[in-house]
Amino acid sequence: MNTPSSDPSFLYRTRDAIASVDALATAIVHLDLFTSLASEPATTAGIAERFDLHPRSTDVLCTLLLAQELLTRDTDGLHTVSNTAREFLVAGSAFDARPYYAAMAEKPGVADFLRVLQTGKPANWPGEEGEADWHAAMKETAFAEAFTAAMDCRGRILAPALAQAFALNAAPRILDVGGGSGVYAIAFAEQYPDAQATVFESSPVDQIAARTIAEAGLASRIAVVSGDMFTDAWPTDHSVHLFSNVLHDWDAAECQTLLARSAEALPAGGTILVHDMLLDDDKAGPLWAAEYSVLLSTVTQGRLYAAAEIGTWLADHGFVIRAITPTALGRSVLTASR
Fold first, then answer.
1. What's the pTM value of the predicted model, to 2 decimals?
2. 58 pLDDT exceeds 80?
3. What is the tally of structural domains in the chain?
4. Among 108, 110, 257, 320, which is most buried by a count of CB atoms within 10 Å?
5. CA dihedral for 86, 91, 95, 100, sign (positive or negative)
6. Of 298, 283, 284, which Cα lies nearest the Cα of 120?
7. Is 275 exposed, middle or buried (0-12, 13-18, 19+ CB in 10 A)?
8. Which pLDDT band holds residue 142 (cuts at 50, 70, 90)?
């Protein structure tokens, strides 16, 4: 698999951060959050209760504002405004910049994020037909083709870096859970000539994966199993389970379900790889991850997670995080085993 000669991070970060401006505008023009917290600090849960917001999306918003250094958080978890926010985003300030954002109040993206905050449900994926959220839209062949192609072009940057970051044993068998086009399985197969892989995907993406793998000339080494990862039986003859950009599509309860199913299907010496953009354990950054988490919360049922959160879920099944290794485009791979 080829690798680029120049760094595309700016192009991918610009897209990943596209919803973060709408989230900031929502906090300013619809909640007047900074004025409220300047007079009465609150925890994330307290903010959700004060404004009648959903916990998942409130968590995402607080992480963004902490990463932007507009909020600070003390050891008791109370959020208050930073000096910058107090000077520019609190009512009564001599330099009040809130009117600069007022015209964004009716912007569609701002309205979408306000709805996500209030309901916890993703907004409609933008499209000519006003498709449903990502999870429902992926059942339609045309949308699945377009979305998988978008993820595949990113995967061509991420997949080789991932394959090089993790040292596999002599003849591994890898289950690529929710593996999309198969781009990650292909990268592992190319990096490790003795590796065998299976892409576990639902319809119609399973057909896209089979086609892509065949075009790469790797159908003899990479199988495709069609199924719902939440309800159907998992293959049990793989030593490594890969979740690449999968957990971030789901809320915490669903992530725990997936990791539990993985632990059950793995042999005693098996390994779980979680490849994603990770939040810092204090969930106050890094900024790129905080920005991307807003986008995810807007179009999926998930968000980004910290290694500490994932580690807690893994520990319930006897797994310990052994390493966290950077790959590309701000992503890392978390390696866990029992």
1. 0.93
2. yes
3. 2
4. 110
5. positive
6. 298
7. buried
8. confident
